[in-house]
Please model this.
Amino acid sequence: MEPVAIVGVGMTEMRRERKADGYADLVYEATRKALDDAGMEIGEVDNVVTVSNDFFDGRTISSMAVQDACGSYDKNVSTVEGDGTFGAAYGLMRILSGSFGTTLVCVHHKGSESRMPLITNAMFDPIYERFLGIEAITSSALQARAYMDKYGITEEQCALVSVKNHRNAFKNPFAQLPLELTVEEVMASPYIADPIKLLDCCPISDGASAVILASEERARKLDVKPVWVKGVAYCSDAYHLGDRDLSDVRALEEAARKAYAMAGIGDPARKVDLVELYDAFTYMELMWLEGLGFCARGEGGKLAASGDTAADGRLPVNASGGCLSGNPVLVAGLNRIIECALQVRGDAGERQVDGVKTAVAHGINGPCGQSHCVWVLGGEK
Amino acid sequence: MAMAEEKKLLITLESGEAEQPFRWSAGIYGSRFLTELRDNKRFVGIRCPKCGKVYVPPRRVCGPCFVELSELVPVSDEGEIVTYTVVSFGFVDPATGKQKPVPYGYAVIKLDGADTYLLHYVDETDPAKIRVGARVKAVFEEERTGSMLDIKHFELLER
Model:
């Protein structure tokens, strides 16, 4: 792959309700920050990818309603429905096509403006599944049970993820929900959908973020520390929930395998210094760590209990606090990329982990990690 | 901004109760599946000529093989629980617009003779009484209209 770098990043603070800000306000804030971070002006942006979802927005996103805010006026602008990691992958491909030297990718979400279960219910097949009331939490509970039952994963092991990530969030000024918790407190929180409890769940959030990608030629002209895209891949499992083995992370294993191959990484457990993954629910961190190849299938609980995934551990996972500490849906995936980029640059402030040379960011689309997108980022080309 | 001042100065607009109504085609095989539920309280699947997998509900294409399917096969109204949850949070039922009473049992079910799974309710709200592998049987509504809700729930055959 021709070298492409992340040259600018911008995030808004994630908050439960950013009442003073409409979508466009959030997008403008993120875009302005990314441009300032890159030392660029909007005229240097060759094309724009905006990322959102019709249902979450309450309007069709193809009409480019954030046109002014992301500076795409009179530019080639395209829209991606889904998670920011996938939108950024499309932005990357537009540079690789040779047609563009830079791409601005911006993502927005306001969970405060709609009724989350009704929208996540719309992920499901309208003939056979939707009217049964299934949505993100119920489907995740079914997956958590399938996974935990198959491998003997305990609720306490999942609770460790909640304790760790909410604590990490204290060092992240963008995070929404820093909490000092004990495993006992997580275990005592009420069941939402067994085995998922309140403190196993991410919050509802508002936020936006943006990244600027650049070809090597364009990146070299900027006064920035480029973060190089070493590998990107995605893979999707079946649409119907009933066609999937929910305890299985096949699609993620495949995406990770391809991304690592592109990046020339043979043994991710030894070569990767930091991971930011999509922990919408605690069990997901365990499952996704298995799928990303950091431990064998079924060993995610042991890895969580080992302390290795702590911010000061051998393999810090979600040192930012993760989605558990702020989950503007879709934005959250791009935030995983941004957190990795900041860590590789050494610009992650109080949450900086020492010596991050290679970092892995991960996002999902669809229920229960139907599709996974894996990014490998590094400080050296 | 103080709360009172914020309320006065920041405007939010309600979309109201307007809906976006749709009318989804179930397709030829989907219609067959739903009419069998409605008229005969029976389940049908469809077999892939290449891999032999029986899909329930039936559909036109086997995704992994990417071949067209046509051989409808009967499957049982009994099966086993693949995974389950007991839902405790209030949720507006998209079918009725009303909040479904909680808690309720929910499961992924593998019918005997099928290789894929159905989602549906289970008539048990104590998670300790449900287990992966437990046998279940479909209980049908008296009045049936040709939808998944023609199945009232799956009855747990062992507790």
The two ends of chain B are 56 Å apart (CA to CA). The CA atoms of residues 33 and 44 of chain B lie 6 Å apart.
